[in-house]
Design brief:
Blueprint lengths: L8 H6 L26 E8 L2 E8 L7 E4 L22 E5 L17 H14 L5 E6 L1 H11 L6 E7 L5 H14 L4 H10 L6 H14 L7 H12 L1 H7 L26 E6 L6 H10 L4 E6 L6 H4 L1 H13 L2
Parallel strand pairs: 3-4, 3-5, 5-6, 6-7, 7-8
Antiparallel strand pairs: 1-2, 2-4
Amino acid sequence: MDSSLQWSRRRSLAGGAALLAIAGIGPVGGAAIPVTAAIPSADGYANVPGGRIYWRRFGNGSKTPLLTLHGGPGAAHNYLLSMSALAEDRPVIFYDQLGCGKADAPADDAIYTIQRSVEELDAVRKALRLDRVILYGHSWGTLLAIEYLCQKRGAGVEKLILAGALPSVPQASAGMRRLINSMPGDYARKLDMLETAGKMQTPEYAALVQQFYDRFVLRVPPTPDALVSFDALAKSIAYRVLNGPNEFTITGKIKDWDRRADLGTITQPTLLTTGEFDEITMDCHQTIQKGVAGRAKLVVMPGCSHLTMVEQPQQYNRIVRSFLEAA
């Protein structure tokens, strides 16, 4: 890869960026990605518990709308915009969850909880009159979708798509620890030493984190839309409060979340997508596949990591479109 295109966490942070659930429309690995300028679109704000969220809708076809839940928490919707290409025959809806992007960002830490996010999803559906939806979640968005359905709020949810999915934060954290231990040399020892010494803000620690991200989060340069999500995440109170300092150090309010025992509540046909090198390890996806009551299909994209829709957007959309069109 041309070093001038190589993404570095330090360079991204210098531009007001950060990491997780990121994608978009633009050149990826030298390939031009078709834009969707001809598809009609609209945007606006909706009231939810705690403030207002910002939403965008592409397409006005008659098929069941696809409602997307971005990752982070706090990455905003922009990284998912390559999926607007799916709006040829159905609406595709994105929204910035409270605490990021163009949504309100109340300063009170107490507002940011899993339960409020579940109620926010209900409020979005009501405001946009989404009685019938296909629900899509990526990363943190899969946690939100699973929690929503386990609370039996899924009336009108016809299908479920989960990308980079976790049924349990402790399970996902254990998987990321295995990935850290698999890194070459004394990577794990250096990382642990710096964390123990409280040196997580140092350039040395940032370089180690970047090595993990380069292998398991994003394996291509970020697109312009991805950079918007980087900036949103860097500013997001939701990421700090709910998640913690980085991908594999989850110390926020979600750290103990676990729905493995309740997956049988989910009866919708389910598509699971992941990358060969996803930071959310294969056992997490297999746990969901085996645990849900509805039929479930797992697709693994070779050479990809956590952000499959960034790394191979056209292939990713083909996979999702096939599931959307299946009976």
